[in-house]
Sequence to fold (264 residues):
Amino acid sequence: MFPFWSHAIAPLLEVVRPATVLEIGSQHGETTQQVLAALPTAELHVIDPAPGFDVEAWQTRHGERFVFHRALSLDVLPSLPPVDLALVDGDHNWFTVSNELDVLRRTAASAGRPLPVLVLHDVCWPYGRRDGYYAPETVPAEHRQPFAYQGMVPGRSELVADGGTNGWIANAAHEGGPRNGVRTALEDFLADLPSEGPDVRCLVIEVLAGLAIVASDDQRTRRPDLDALLDRLADPRVRATIHDEGVAELRAIFGHPDDGTDGA
Ligand SMILES: C[S@@+](CC[C@H](N)C(=O)[O-])C[C@H]1O[C@@H](n2cnc3c(N)ncnc32)[C@H](O)[C@@H]1O
Fold:
């Protein structure tokens, strides 16, 4: 998610000024740390079953406003309070993401609050149209695609026996089709929003692994700068900058541009 930080996520936090934020999937805590620094008084709920940082030390450092849930998102989300903004970057599959979005919508609606501003990573290749499963046994078999621990290559639906991207994760055997991938989950969520609302604007930044931002009309009316920011992020020149800077950053970290999912 970090290639999107300076041009998209940081300005979004500045405009939305959320009092409560949720991060699904924190890994090494790179984005977590940035959110805590950017919003010094906000409460941040973080969900990750296998964090790669010292959660207890972070809890001591940040106090009660840093609330960590060592769990699968769908096990803990229904018991969380409504949030103003949610960063969704956990298990990259249709079942998990569509249910995460649905629980977030229902929680907000039952509290009489607007849909949180939703920020989803991995809406483009490789997981936009293909499920990945960190732990396939945690996703009900009837909601899983056939999968294999093999890598992915752009433009090719089948997995590859040697090399490719993210072969250490269980990846759906084929790309595309119904109920497959994060982008498909987002589109299905938007298509299934109840007719009574909320109405939303959805912007997809189609560079690198892709970032989607969903803002309800309610949020955009309350925060007039939100539309201006989304307009700016729709500008191809801004996207080109995000792409070029992101590729340089990924190259510096991984030695190749890849897609940003290994470490982001
Ligand atoms: C791509 S990484 C997140 C990167 C992070 N957002 C960042 O910007 O640095 C995905 C993380 O999601 C976690 N994860 C996997 N399945 C999950 C689930 N069902 N619920 C929450 N987190 C999950 C993994 O343990 C991993 O740390």
In short: The longest helix spans residues 236-254. The two ends are 5 Å apart (CA to CA).
